[in-house]
Each structure stands twice: as structure tokens, then as C-alpha cells.
Amino acid sequence: MLNKICLDEMKGKKNLLAFSYGSDSSALFFLLEKEGISFDIAFVNYGTRKNSDIEESEARKLANKFSKNFFCKKAPFFDSNFEKNARDFRYSFFDELCEKFAYENLILAHNLNDKFEWFLMQFSKGAGLLELCDFNYISKRKQYILLRPMLDTCKDEILDFLKRENISFFKDESNYDEKYFRNRIRKYFAKPFVSEFHTGVKNTFAYLQKDINNLYPCEEKEFNGILLCDIKESVIAKNAKKLGFVLSAKQRKEALKGDCVISHKLGICYIQNKALLFLYERSEKIPKKDRELFRKANIPPLLRAYLFKHKISLKDFLCFLNS
Questions:
Q1: In what order do the strands lie in the sheet with 40-45?
Q2: Between helices 288-296 and 301-309, what is the axis angle to 10°?
Q3: How many CB atoms lie within 10 A of CB 137?
Q4: Sequence-ordered list of residues with C-beta below 8 angstroms from that of 208, at least 6 positions apart, any chain
Q5: Tens digit of each residue's pLDDT (9 = 90 or more) over 277-289
Q6: Radius of gyration of the chain (CA)
Q7: How far is CA 4 from CA 14, 26, 111, 151, 186, in A?
Q8: pLDDT score, position 229
Q9: Domains, the chain, ranges and CATH?
Q10: I want to staple 154 with a disulfide (CB 3.0 to 4.6 A). Which of 102, 162, 198, 289 is the partner?
Q11: What is the mean pLDDT of the chain?
Q12: pTM of the entire predicted model
């Protein structure tokens, strides 16, 4: 049920499992145990349901039983756009843990149904090939590797495993609330389709990934938090997501017009027919000598504060651009 490439990536590494005590993360917990993978647990308590505190307590007990470090954070109340705000909150928490405790991998319990749901959600909004298939086994984040070892496993197989192994889990009633777009996609489209055609869905995603690899070979590099990629709309959007930004259709068009700052946080510059993406740093007083060096090297003005603040050698940066 677990992808072998992901398992090989976890072995001997410091791993953190995003755990909710729902069916998927519970199954993944025990599958990782069976494989002898060492990992700790990160749990977010949103406090939106009557079982939230009970789930946190039981998750803590499970972690103690299996000698796992347990990290928990309570989310604030989100009065609007819950799905996006909750996602941003938990990934901020995961980023914080991975940086503080040097976790090399963050393990997520996404499965084949989740991947197909994402595909349909992006399809409904308008998306390119990279966005449609942006649920991968392995994704590189700034500080760690994100792993999804159950992407070939459908929900029915997960539930069968839990029943067969007599593993208990909590049901999140919010997953059935149709005010959330994802839940409507899940109930009326993704779940019935994957239940009947899961082998075909899995194979189709594999073929699509091969096509992506052929169409976009080695399209990106990274240097001190700066991502370099081809000037292609879908590729830029994909790299923006690595830095934590999901670009809207309007922002994607803005990004292609020239050097800019998206949402006051994402810097995008163009140099040597490549796009550079980075977390924007506000201008600060740069010594005249350094300003002149940046100017002579044709460093885009939006990027200069980032290079200066992070003490990045201009020589090393130029070598990166030309490598």
C-alpha cells in the first residue's frame, strides 16, 4: 500500500507524520510501523467539533504508546475561508517543526481519492497540466521533503485495511458538510468514480506524469531559497506553490508581465531568460558599494534586498545563474 520510492526516502531519515486520527492518517501510522519507519507526530486541533479535544488526547496517548514525539498546536477561529486558512495554518506549523527540529521529511496521508479530487477541483477552475497533476509522491519544500506514500491507494482499500487490522479511528463530520467545495466534489464525483475505476485512475496519473517529465525536463533549480525556472506560466505557478503561494489566474498573468511582487510576499524577477522566485524582502539601506556591485551585475532591483539581507555572495549567485 506504500510507495517504495517514498519508503526508501524515509529510511534512516528524521520523519514527521501529519496526523489527524482520521482513517487515512491512522492507516498510514500503522503501515509505517509495519515497515519499521521511525517518525514523530504533528497534530493540529482546530477546535471546530465536539470531538476535537478527544481526538487530540487520544492521538497523544497513541504517540506515547509507540514512543513518538507528539507536537500539537491549537488553531485560532477562522471566521471566513476556513479551508484555505486552515491549510495555511497547519503548513506553517509543519514548516516551524521541520526547521526547529531538523525533520528531513514530512509525511502526508493523501491517497488516490485525494489526488483525483484535486484534479477535478483544478479542472473545474481552469488549470494547466502541471496544476492538474500537482499531487506527487515526492515534493521538495524549502526546508524538507514532502512525501505522500499512499497516492496509489484508494479510500476503499484503506478502509478495508483498517477493518481487517481492527484499527480504530475518528470520523470527521466536517468532511460531509457540502458547504465546502472539496466535499461536494468528493461526494458527487470523485468517490463514486474512483470506487469503480481506481485502477484506471492510477494508471492514467502514471501516464500523465511520464508526459510531464518529457515536456518539462529539469525545469527548475534552487539556491539559498531562490527558485530558478523556465518562463512558462504553469512552471512558474508550480514553483510559487513550493514557496507557499497558490497563484490565481489573475496573479499568473501578472507574473508573466515582468518583475513584480505577488501578495506583498512573493518576489518574481526575470534574468537571462529565466524566472527567479523568492520570498520578497522589503528594501533596506544597502551600502553604496554593494548597490554599485548589484547594478553592474544587472541584478534586478527587487532581488537586491534579498541577496543583501541573506548575505549571499554575488559571485556564488552569478555562478548559480550560469551553471
A1: 70-74, 40-45, 15-18, 105-107, 145-147, 138-140
A2: 130
A3: 18
A4: 129, 132, 133
A5: 999 998 778 999 9
A6: 21
A7: 17, 19, 15, 11, 27
A8: 92
A9: 4-211 (3.40.50.620), 220-322 (no CATH)
A10: 198
A11: 93
A12: 0.80
